[in-house]
Amino acid sequence: MAAPYDGAPSAPPMPAPVSVVSPQFCAPYVVPLTVTKKALSLSDGDFTVTDANGGVVLKVKGAIFSVRHRRVLVDAAGQPILTMTEKVFSLHNRWEVYRGDSTNASDLLFTAKKASIVQLKTAIDVFLVGNTSEQVCDFKIRGSYFERSCAFYLGNSDTMIAQTNRKLTVTNVLLEKDTFTVTVFPHVDYVFIAALVVILDEIHRERHD
């Protein structure tokens, strides 16, 4: 479980716990995370997620020389929690997220994609596996990922469940690391939010490659 931080901002309570991956990842307090991406890495897409105390909570490993974009999110012990894959030939940059290291349809948890093909601002819609019609999103992300300033909302509402901000330090610039903070609100699945941050970065990177 990620450590709390006494100086974390307060947040309105959720009407009900937001559990997508597992209830064990829903803390009763604000969870501040720091996400660091290595700018230069042999396997593209390597991230480290740390808590308020600097302890490693999650890591994301990219596949080396993979034709299909595939990311595996693991816990501090290296055990796979989620597998994220990009759907081939998707105009909306559709990503599918599965439980564990599986890519079987029975293990699909949710999908995320751009709300529209052409975007000036970040707009990502997220659909849980049971939402087959995808007429209304279960979660949405809005903001400016170029500025690392995005908000995560519950469904098609104004109820915020998490937010991101850029974190600039001299060390990060010198080491060519891209670092930003993620504030996960109480009773919200922080592994789910971490996975969405990775997908956001992938979609943003592809737009600017």
UniProtKB/TrEMBL annotation:
<dbReference type="InterPro" id="IPR038595">
    <property type="entry name" value="LOR_sf"/>
</dbReference>
<comment type="similarity">
    <text>Belongs to the LOR family.</text>
</comment>
<protein>
    <recommendedName>
        <fullName>Protein LURP-one-related 15</fullName>
    </recommendedName>
</protein>
<dbReference type="InterPro" id="IPR025659">
    <property type="entry name" value="Tubby-like_C"/>
</dbReference>
<dbReference type="InterPro" id="IPR007612">
    <property type="entry name" value="LOR"/>
</dbReference>
<dbReference type="Pfam" id="PF04525">
    <property type="entry name" value="LOR"/>
</dbReference>
